[in-house]
């Protein structure tokens, strides 16, 4: 997909015009993209969208039509428009790999480059990373709730626009939901596509049994019958059993049945018992209807017998705490080599200045102990004392036996990718592995354990110094 | 924008393959697209997305690459793939104009055509209409809450993907939010684009006053200064006053200031008083930060002095009751000229069979009395008795003095548009006018008056007959 450079907020362009006019546009700058709170009040997030973001940056340039539109707005000077005609992204990008488990407060993407180019990409990067990271996280929650059952994403019809459905399918795959009904996502991203049929299929035939028979004839080895059109237990189930027997006589197996209404947990037990009793233990039960991680978890707790969860609306729109948006922000952290800090009304939430690295402390068994944000060139060793960014007098020591690994690496340099892009499968595997390495309780859906994200001594000292400086300058 | 035909659920294609194989694909069918509950537990919805949907239908065809992908799935037969190569939408579409105020339970779009083509477009139509109608409705709620103040949409960075932002800006315009920060929405849809600057602009300069001065020099006649970077009242406000005076000396007017944090209602009163006292009553106050219709309404109630509300995340993602999705569905209502009905576990929620018209009963002053869904060829006159679809024994009479107008018209015939497309401005005007014609209490944000949507005697009788038929056939 190609993104127009005009997919941005007007203020990016007005700021650029100002920087250009002042001759500030090429002064070296660094911005951090991060979110403050884990989505869904959960214990983690799954980073996604990087490949989409890098493709956007590589292709960034203004067409003649786009420049003509900007000219017609009559707010930009000719020399600035001429500058835009040659505008490309030539900076560098530091980021975790897609699928990495990340946490609120950590710099995810750091953009370095001239002030203008690094500022300009704010809106598009936020748009891409906010949504895909949110959807990957939602998918991980749903997949973890479903346990060994399969989850199928089929939210396209309720997604927020066509790309909402497409990006959600991509991100959901990274988060662990490895099949989709979205055929375009299948073609574009190689995601396995799956589906059953609609109630209208049943209604287009004289009766339900005729509709089932016809579908089974068409797809004898992959047939999933929707059994709730008229009455799941009185009519759909007996008709599906009839078709299962007929298929067997012809050497095929009914793949499954889908239940889309009613008490899914209760119905799944009844349907399972009936197929087992009739000698069809291999028929899968698919359930759908406004599912999410909470519904799935409670149905499993009461002994539902569901093999495949079809999850649509609430996955594709990332419904839940937070209202369908990840609150990612993009803040200037360095300019001309000088660290920059943004205060907020809550002093403990001041940004983390300067260019930084993110280290993850691993126990000898590979499990995650804590994350540490440090200055880029600061030496950090196991045993170091680290600080709580929300309460700088709180500190802990990194265990001596911990191993420190960098969460991020430079993935684009001088506007060109400098590492190969991992395929989606590898990103999904990474997420799946990392989620199992979190401390106990981080995966809990409600009131999870909060993973520790600390800052280094050097960063803590610099931040306090800049905070004092700003407060004495502006708030006296 | 062009939509790939693969932007669909796999099951549409498997059903089509089945219909094609059975020779059923050209049998005449009609489907209704509708939602059951007004979004946000509100009193209405604003219909949007039709033009996008018609463009999709007009352009619908499979490319060689798309057909090759489908072939590689190894679930479709060669003759069906050959059929898809020539597949076009040749049916008809009946719909209200964009901007029309509509209600839960009413058929919005009716698609008539061959069974295959009418079935196939389900997913894409739902995707387009669900989101744009939801966003237009959210925008209407926000605009109505804001009263005479201006609302600016700037949710792109938190929208659900790039198209989430673009479709939201388009739909929001129809709903009454007539400016956006989204430059691409400006170019593509002619929506006025607006913006200020970011905190990073301030931080890129030695101090706040220098940053303000520079921005004012760049845009002396359209300068809106963000005054909360360090401290709104102690620092941002006095610096903005300085710049307002300096601009005035040079013959320009400071356009406004923006407040993006803190108690917006309180701060707006302080800032208003300071500018008024200094002789700048024309400086506008822009407020932003997690706004929606509820926050705006309560701030206005406590006497805030805000001229322009910048609304981002919660508009672009349609946050609120319902989790960011309109639950639109798409149901077969007629085949081979025979009416079709879908039962649900709640009998009162059975679908409305057959091809229908939607009539709106208007009082002599033009205000809306009730909507009535009737069979397409049924004659309805003022004075007719109409029924509650959820409780068929409840009935009322249409007032004798009422005027009945059709809500919908045929907008596409044989696959081609048959009415000119109104521009976005006219759609927005229509929404604005119709919202004022609703009965008292329908516009209330919480627990609104529920507008009456009735069914005709003919439709009621047909529906009861089909319900009895299905129940005796399948549920005994």
Automatic annotation (TrEMBL), chains A, B:
Organism of origin: Geomonas subterranea
Name the record gives this protein: Nicotinate phosphoribosyltransferase
Domain of life: Bacteria
All copies of domain Nicotinate phosphoribosyltransferase N-terminal, residue ranges: 6-130
Catalytic activity: 5-phospho-alpha-D-ribose 1-diphosphate + nicotinate + ATP + H2O = nicotinate beta-D-ribonucleotide + ADP + phosphate + diphosphate
Group of enzyme by EC: ligase
EC identifiers of the protein: 6.3.4.21
Keyword Ligase in annotation: yes
InterPro entries reported in the protein's UniProt record: NAPRTase_C (IPR041619), NAPRTase_N (IPR040727), Nic_PRibTrfase-Fam (IPR007229), Nic_PRibTrfase_pncB (IPR006405)
Pathway(s): Cofactor biosynthesis; NAD(+) biosynthesis; nicotinate D-ribonucleotide from nicotinate: step 1/1
Keywords recorded for this protein, A-Z: Glycosyltransferase, Ligase, Pyridine nucleotide biosynthesis, Transferase
Family: Belongs to the NAPRTase family.
């Amino acid at each position: 997909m190609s993104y127009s450079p005009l997919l941005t907020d007007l203020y990016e362009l007005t700021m650029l015009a100002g920087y250009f006019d002042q001759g500030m546009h090429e002064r070296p700058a660094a911005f951090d993209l991060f979110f403050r709170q884990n989505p869904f009040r959960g214990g983690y997030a799954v980073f996604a969208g990087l490949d989409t973001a890098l493709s956007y940056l590589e292709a960034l340039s203004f067409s003649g039509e786009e420049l003509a539109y900007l000219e017609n707005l009559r707010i930009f000077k000719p020399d600035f428009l001429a500058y835009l005609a040659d505008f490309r992204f030539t900076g560098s990008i530091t980021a975790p790999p897609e699928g990495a488990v990340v946490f609120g407060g950590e710099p995810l993407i750091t953009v370095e480059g001239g002030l203008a180019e690094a500022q300009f990409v704010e809106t598009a990067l936020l748009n891409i990373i906010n949504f895909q990271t949110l959807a990957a996280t939602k998918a991980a929650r749903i997949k973890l709730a479903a346990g060994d059952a399969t989850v199928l994403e089929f939210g396209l019809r309720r997604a927020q626009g066509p790309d909402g459905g497409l990006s959600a399918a991509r991100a959901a795959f990274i988060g662990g939901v490895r099949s989709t009904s979205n055929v375009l996502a299948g073609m574009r991203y190689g995601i396995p596509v799956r589906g059953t049929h609609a109630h209208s299929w049943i209604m287009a035939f004289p009766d339900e049994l005729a509709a089932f028979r016809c579908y089974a004839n068409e797809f004898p080895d992959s047939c999933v019958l929707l059994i709730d059109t008229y009455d799941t237990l009185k009519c759909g189930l007996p008709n599906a059993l009839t078709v299962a027997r007929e298929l067997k006589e012809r050497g095929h197996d009914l793949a499954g049945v889908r239940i889309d209404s009613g008490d899914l947990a209760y119905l799944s037990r009844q349907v399972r018992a009936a197929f087992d009793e009739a000698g069809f233990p291999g028929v899968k039960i698919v359930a759908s209807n406004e599912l999410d991680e909470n519904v799935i978890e409670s149905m499993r707790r009461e002994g539902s017998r569901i093999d495949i969860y079809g999850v649509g609306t609430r996955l594709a729109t990332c419904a839940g705490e937070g209202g369908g948006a990840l609150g990612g922000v993009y803040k200037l952290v360095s300019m001309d080599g000088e660290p920059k800090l943004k205060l907020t009304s809550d002093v403990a939430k001041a940004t983390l200045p300067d260019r930084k690295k993110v280290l993850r402390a691993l126990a000898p068994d590979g499990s995650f102990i804590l994350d540490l944000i440090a200055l880029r060139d600061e030496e950090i060793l196991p045993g170091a004392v680290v600080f709580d960014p929300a309460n700088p007098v709180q500190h802990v020591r990194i265990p001596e036996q911990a191993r420190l690994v960098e969460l991020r690496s430079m993935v684009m340099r001088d506007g060109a990718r400098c590492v190969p892009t991992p395929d989606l499968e590898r990103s999904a595997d990474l997420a799946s592995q990392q989620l199992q390495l979190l401390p106990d309780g981080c995966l809990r859906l409600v009131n999870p354990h909060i993973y520790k994200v600390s800052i280094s001594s050097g960063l803590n000292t610099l931040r306090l110094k800049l905070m004092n400086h700003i407060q004495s300058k502006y708030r006296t």
